[in-house]
Amino acid sequence: MSIPFEHSYIQLPQLLFERVRPTPVTQPKLLAVNDTLAETLHISRNEITCPDGVAIFAGNKIPNGAEPIALAYAGHQFGHLVPQLGDGRAILLGEITGRDGKRYDVQLKGAGRTPYSRRGDGRAAIGPVLREYLVSEAMFALGVKTTRSLCAVATGELVYREIPSPGAVLTRVALSHLRVGTFEYVALRRDVDALERLTNYALARLYRDRSSNGSVALTLLEAVIASQAELVAHWMALGFVHGVMNTDNMAISGETIDYGPCAFLDTYSPERTFSSIDVNGRYSFINQPNCAQWNLTRLAEALFPLVLKEGHVEAKATALLTECLKAFSPQYTAAYQMRLRRKLGLTLETADDAALAQDLLTMMAASKVDYTLCFRRLADVAEGAEASVITSLFADLEAIGGWLRRWEHRSQQESRSDAARAALMRGANPAFIPRNHRIEEVIAAALQGDLAPFVRLHDVLARPYEDRLDARDLALPPGEEQWDYRTFCGT
Ligand code: AMP
Ligand code: MG
């Protein structure tokens, strides 16, 4: 097989990566292949499913043209600086310019130890691999910017977490694996030339269309702020909780990256966390915009020496970076409010829209209403369904009845037909999200050798905005006994 690899990252300063080899595994077996993504990358399905292909995506064989490397980065984890992180279990094979003209990183995750593994084994367990595959592809289908999953291969070997589990390798595809932590890494080493090259690289690779404001550092910061404001607004509109928004898990590209203890809300609980070690709720659902702002401030700090190099004195550099950071909050709020309006079927902007949406959310939280189900049913009401499909979800019937009348009154200001409003709402409010209890069922079946539930869930999540009578079970919220879901960090 010949994969048209390119290698721009190894042109960057040497401190940013190490050349590595994947560690072979005993019994590679293909678990899943993403046909459409493969095609985008000029790879045919057969080239992945054939024995040579499986060997490559298990890390047993280096394909022609690959130059495997592990990337270095630092990061703030739960607020604490860790100066030396890096790809401890991920190996970049190279980049491919896809049929869409975009350049993608192709990376094996779980392919063995690297110089950045610290105490880790360099491996991934099958459960988290299938979970990342499902959730990242669901996010893509939902329209969210995200890394993607090209294929998953079981290794035939055990990895030791809370309990021993079969291992697997995920092939992750991203517009780039640059993170806020990559910039922190270079800044910490006080290598301003490397910082400048890295910044130019990021701009050329990810934000080519953005006009320069005279400073590469400020141009990049503005671009990342804008894309993170959009991304986090999208998460918040869909009820997605990333779970570990450490700076090493925030991509410069604005893609969702590192699906560890992530989850979609079932009941609307703003303070909900999903990571077993997030005892203070730092990465709770409602705190995500604050965390993004915090991380972007760390990026601004990392870029500070470059703004100085660009000819500004310290006070001016601080003022310029601070000015950029101030843009996050209004950009985020505008993006989030626009998405909330769409969820309510509103296209015009009026002053009371934010309060209208917030009042519904407050009632949803009080009655522990399923977030996705409620918004999806609201589209049915827009099109004439009985109000009871909504009111029956709430404890305070009078309050929700009052809210529905307000919403209907507001909807009359829109010059659209009921059907058009309902269609707008169904395009913003998915019928299907990757609910945790379903993911766990699918993983349990896969561990017994049955991949059929995985395939079914994956296929339904590929068209999340379409109603499907044959998959009603997958749209339903969990029963109460399945509520206390937590993901453990040893992914
Ligand atoms: P994460 O919490 O997954 O974002 O990972 C944080 C850091 O730990 C990164 O540098 C990872 O590469 C590293 N890491 C996570 N799991 C492993 C593992 N099993 N082996 C080696 N390094 C790991
Ligand atoms: Mg990470």
Describe what this molecule looks like in 3D.
With 491 residues, the chain is an alpha+beta fold. Among the domains are: 9-174, no CATH class; 346-426, no CATH class. The chain contains 18 helices and 12 strands. It has helices at residues 35-40, 45-49, 51-58, 126-142, 180-188, 192-206, 216-238, 288-309, 314-325, 328-343, 353-367, 371-382, 388-391, 397-411, 418-428, 436-447, 452-461, 472-475, and strands at residues 17-19, 29-33, 69-71, 75-77, 80-82, 90-97, 103-109, 124-125, 148-160, 164-174, 240-241, 263-264. The strands form 4 sheets. Strands 2, 6, 7, 8, 9 and 10 form a 6-stranded antiparallel beta sheet that branches. The protein has a two-stranded antiparallel ribbon with strand order 1-3. Strands 4-5 form a two-stranded antiparallel sheet. A hairpin with a 2-residue loop joins strand 4 and strand 5 (80-82). Helix 8 runs antiparallel to helix 9 and helix 12 packs antiparallel against helix 15. The longest helix is centred in the middle third of the chain and has 23 residues, at 216-238. The two termini are 32 Å apart. The structure holds adenosine monophosphate and magnesium ion. Residues 248-249, 258 line the site of magnesium ion (MG). Residues 85-89, 116-117, 120-123, 244, 248-249, 258, 260 line the site of adenosine monophosphate (AMP).
Detail the topology: elements first, then pairings:
Blueprint: E1 17-19, E2 29-33, H1 35-40, H2 45-49, H3 51-58, E3 69-71, E4 75-77, E5 80-82, E6 90-97, E7 103-109, E8 124-125, H4 126-142, E9 148-160, E10 164-174, H5 180-188, H6 192-206, H7 216-238, E11 240-241, E12 263-264, H8 288-309, H9 314-325, H10 328-343, H11 353-367, H12 371-382, H13 388-391, H14 397-411, H15 418-428, H16 436-447, H17 452-461, H18 472-475
Antiparallel strand pairs: 1-3, 2-9, 4-5, 6-7, 7-10, 8-10, 9-10, 11-12
Helix pairs in contact: 4-16, 4-17, 5-8, 6-7, 6-8, 7-8, 7-9, 7-10, 8-9, 11-14, 12-15, 16-17
The structure holds adenosine monophosphate (AMP) and magnesium ion.
